Amino acid sequence: MIFAENTEKNVDICTKMFYIVSYTEYDSYLGIMWTFVLIFERIYRERGLIMMEDNVIIKLQNISKKFEDDVILDDISLSIKDKEFMTFLGPSGCGKTTTLRIIAGFLESDSGQVLFEGKDINNLPPHKRQVNTIFQRYALFPHLNVYDNIAFGLRIKKMKEKDISKKVYEMLELVNLKGFQKRNIASLSGGQQQRVAIARALAVEPRVLLLDEPLGALDLKLRKDMQVELKNIQKRMGITFIYVTHDQQEALSMSDTIVVMNGGKIQQIGTPIDIYNEPKNAFVADFIGESNILDGVMLNDFKAKFSGAVFQCLDKGFAVNESVDIVVRPEDVDVVPVEEGTISGVITSNTFKGVHFEMIVDIDNFKWMIQTTDYYPVGTRIGIQIEPDAIHVMKKSEYSGMFGDYSSFSDEIEHLSDIAEEEE
């Protein structure tokens, strides 16, 4: 079917086809009616009358990317909804920043499509995409003051100076920097510079804001304050935020949806609660918070065996006697007298964490992490009880046996891992 460029002509074509259809045989009628529907769909799209699919603003379809022989993204697909706060979460090298750069247009994928409101934008340059990016280093102009930094993108768009001034002051109020317009960038704290970068990015009114580990350079307290601030700004602006981080707590506290990535693949997509309580494999369970991950067997529905004992659980749908991975979060373990416990173990270390004690407990030569508000000295044998809703059962995966034993755990190792992530 050849369409006219003019929408009104297309309407006229459809009207004439309606009369033609009335005089056709039944079989032909079906074929022509289907074409008739397609034409009207085309017309409605031209006029912007067709809504986005399930409110999806960005859709990635089968995106792959290699750098020389290294596969960075391996056939990933996902949908991002309008006004959603989505976080790409994963370790260094998992492909999260590459995905962000492909959406921004800074990188081209080797295969696959990036769709914006249903339209392919693979060949659209970054400055023509309805997105803006905030980087970890902020990229502020040191020779310009706060006002001129925020106004920069608006001047590129050749807005009138009166309109620019109005928008700049709106942005300053939005990011709580009212009165800072004449300040030099070098005189600002890290958190204030971050706010200027946010204001500059939002001033040009993007449909989507991309944030590549923007809080990585801030200290812990300021970082937590900015997490709350970013979420509030996103709600007030009513636009889509796509956020990249390796910080699990950051992702859990801010996101509507988390995309957990590793090895260039999406491991799981879900809400923070789903990701934390219902991880799909051992990698996700270990990466999101602390987890005891044990080999187990599903005896039948609602009954699992692990650590030499049988426990009631809430999981079903596994084969009888199927080998599985069992996840028990440290905060979900109940410490009881030995004679009252389903299993027992000996405390090998105990660290005070402020709101709780973090114990490593040897249970049948497997080191568990257990968090409790009560103090028990090292060497004490304790009983363990676990409620059915504290047990999560997962199918075996390529990550089985790689995580969940705290034999080599130490705060120092965890801290060094965080430093390495930030340096990369």
Structure overview:
The structure is a single chain. With 424 residues, this protein is an alpha+beta fold. Helices cover 32% and strands 29% of the residues. The chain is built from 11 helices and 20 strands. Strands 6-7-8-3-9-10 form a 6-stranded mixed sheet, with helices on both faces. A hairpin with a 2-residue loop joins strand 12 (303-306) and strand 13. The longest helix has 21 residues, at 26-46. 33% of the residues are buried. The model is unreliable at 1-11, 13-24, 44-51, 412-417 and 419-424 (pLDDT under 50).
Task: Please outline the helices and strands.
Elements: H1 7-21, H2 26-46, E1 56-67, E2 70-81, E3 85-89, H3 96-104, E4 111-116, E5 119-120, E6 131-134, H4 146-156, H5 161-174, H6 190-203, E7 208-212, H7 220-237, E8 240-245, H8 248-254, E9 257-262, E10 265-270, H9 272-277, H10 282-287, E11 292-300, E12 303-306, E13 309-312, E14 322-328, E15 334-336, E16 343-352, E17 357-363, E18 366-372, E19 381-385, E20 392-395, H11 411-423
Parallel strand pairs: 3-8, 3-9, 6-7, 7-8
Antiparallel strand pairs: 1-2, 1-4, 4-5, 9-10, 11-12, 11-14, 12-13, 14-20, 15-19, 16-17, 16-19, 17-18
List the defining traits of the structure above.
424 residues, alpha+beta, six-stranded mixed beta sheet, 11 helices, 20 strands, 32% helix
Rounded radius of gyration (Å): 27 Å
Which spans of ≥5 residues are poorly predicted at pLDDT below 50? 1-11, 13-24, 44-51, 412-417, 419-424
How many helices does DSSP assign?
A: 11
**Secondary structure: helix percent:** 25-40%
How does the helix and strand content classify structurally? alpha+beta
Shape: elongated
Q: Which strand order does the major sheet show? A: 6-7-8-3-9-10
Q: Which range does the strand content fall in?
A: 25-35%
Total strands: 20
What gap, in angstroms, lies between the N and C termini? 53 Å
Sheet bearing the most strands, described? 6 strands, mixed
Mean pLDDT: 86
